[in-house]
Structure formats: structure tokens, C-alpha cells
């Protein structure tokens, strides 16, 4: 497996360092969107080395598919919005996967080729319907990647 990412990233397999560090670091770009585009473009530029390219950069890779010398598979790790749907509609032959059956349910005409859940072993986490004194959230708090029903508590020690 080959990962296109920033220098110093810890990966299993080959790392192709596309930038000297994460966004905002010395010598890197300040805008994380541009950092993602650098990774994606470098991967497509070297696509003749691979059997398949799996793009996790939202669905931005759909736009680069005509330039790839390897088949591409696309996964978005957020709740899709209208722009994501339009990108896919622009290239309906694209191979798009989903993280859950629910993920693309707002767009019933768009059918993912497969559902491939995150590699989180949910049996490690015990559900309780009784409130506790902790919060567990797995993910980043960004506009497109947030809990669908957050429950705020004023007594949390954050």
C-alpha cells in the first residue's frame, strides 16, 4: 500500500511525501483543501504504478479520473451534500463506496458500489441508555462531519 501524505506521516507501507509537514507548517500550504489537492494530484500523477487508486479526498478525485492511468474508487467520509451529489452525477460511471447504508440515503438515485464501514470494532464500546459523566465522539468536529444528534452538557469539564 502506498499513501500520499505529509513528510513524517506514520503509515504501513510506502509513504510518498507530498509536503514537508501538515497544513500551516513551515514550507507547507496554509489551506488544508490545497494540501488535499496536492496529495490527490500527486497520486494521479503516479497512477501508472498502481492497480487501483482509492481517493478519500471527498469526491474531488472524480474530476481527475480521466487523467488517471489506474481505475479509481472514491469514498467521502462525511455526510454527502448537494455538491458531492452533483460531482457524482457529473461522472455517473465513477466507483463510489459508502461508509454505511445511511450515508447516501438522501440521494436515492445515487447507488454506491459497496458499503465498507470504518474499521472501528464497535463491540469494544458498551452502549448504555443511562447517562454517564463522559462523552465519546469518534471523528473530527467539522461542518460536514459531526454527530447528527449532539447532546450538550453544561457540566462537562472541557
Structure description:
The chain has 158 residues and is of the alpha/beta class. It has one domain. 15% of the residues lie in helices and 15% in strands. A 4-stranded parallel beta sheet has the order 3-4-5-6, with helices on one face. Strands 1-2 form a two-stranded parallel sheet. Strand 4 (72-75), helix 2 (82-90) and strand 5 form a beta-alpha-beta unit. The longest helix has 14 residues, at 32-45. It is globular, with a radius of gyration of 18 Å. The mean pLDDT is 88.
The chain-level structural class is alpha/beta
Tally of individual domains: 1
Strand order of the largest sheet: 3-4-5-6
Given the C-alpha coordinates, what overall shape results? globular
Portion of residues in beta strands equals: 15-25%
Poorly predicted runs: none
Largest sheet: 4 strands, parallel
Count of individual beta strands: 6
Provide the helix percentage. Answer: 10-25%
